[in-house]
């Protein structure tokens, strides 16, 4: 298979992070070799059908920012109302203790950079880091496994329920050359534990970096995770993420996701409902404009009895922006009593905008309730006429209807201060 030479050649010439841990260094080399052999995914792969990587493949990225530890960063960039708990901050993939807040951790919470956890005792991380779950097309997962030298290790003890959210900040900053940086995050909630987790991708200035982020999240029996993902990467950057959640018996997870930034932004969000009675809900909105390309791949697998999933997603594309949404639900054999619902509604605000949506439903069990649907259209002319008949100008009427369309994904977010901030942010991002 022929692949774009510049991207692959640059990787071949890039030294792998040296950990001094034999099994980890061997694992990194194995993943790099596998990535180089397979190359970047092509559009003939179903999961990448609407996201071409030809332009990315012609670029060369350099690894490592020698100034990452000293870049001047205004903490106001990542400040969020209602989010004032422990915080880990990474700038261009490098941990910044001076911007983080780890002095006082609540009982039962362990939170530290992956690099520190590896130095202290790498053996407990060996199983999860060595797990080979890359499928054909998961090229960036292999790339991340080869080059990620840092990230987050978060463990919450059984029964622990911190009140304040944990804030993870991944910041891109201008640097000499175009950087490639990679982070691997490991999150585990013990039995009956509860946590609010805010994942924030931000920028302190324009740049054209490539970043990959891989999240492995495990919820033990009865655990509850409330996750908020705010993606505001630089408009010239490329951000590729894979998040995998595994839910045990009676575990519950909710994810509110705002995809706003990046020239190319792709998120593979996968959930395994592995325990009886597990529940997973997602609420998301993606808003490509200019020449942005935002791709969301949602895959939910029901593998146990009486599991439930509920997903509501909104897309708004303007100018020459392109959005992609693929929602796949699988109810495995024996997963009787499952309840799955998926809705994706999209608005095109420009004749040049495009949104490709593909809901998928695969059922191999009995006594299952399942529904899915997707629409792509424009604002309701009757609603516009009604607002204009009340004296509201056309531009303002369009903005009001579009804002209401998007805000639906935030209505059940329990953190009121954060909810209002995100709603205001959506309003700002909408076309004037």
* Number of DSSP strand runs: 20
Rg calculated over all Cα atoms:
21 Å
User: How far apart are the first and last residues' alpha carbons, in Å?
Assistant: 46 Å
Percentage of β-strand residues? 35-45%
Domain count, please report it: 2
User: Which structural category do the helix and sheet elements fall into?
Assistant: alpha/beta
Question: What's the shape?
Answer: globular
Q: H/E series, N to C?
A: HHHEEEEHHHEEEEEEEEEEEEEEEEHHH
Account of the protein in words:
The protein is 20% helix and 38% strand. It is an alpha/beta fold. It has 2 domains: 5-275, no CATH class; 380-432, no CATH class. The strands form 2 sheets. Strands 1, 4, 5, 7, 9, 11, 13, 15, 17 and 19 form a 10-stranded mixed β-sheet that branches. It has a 10-stranded mixed β-sheet with strand order 3-2-6-8-10-12-14-16-18-20, with helices on one face. The longest helix has 17 residues, at 22-38. The radius of gyration is 21 Å and the shape is globular. 43% of the residues are buried.
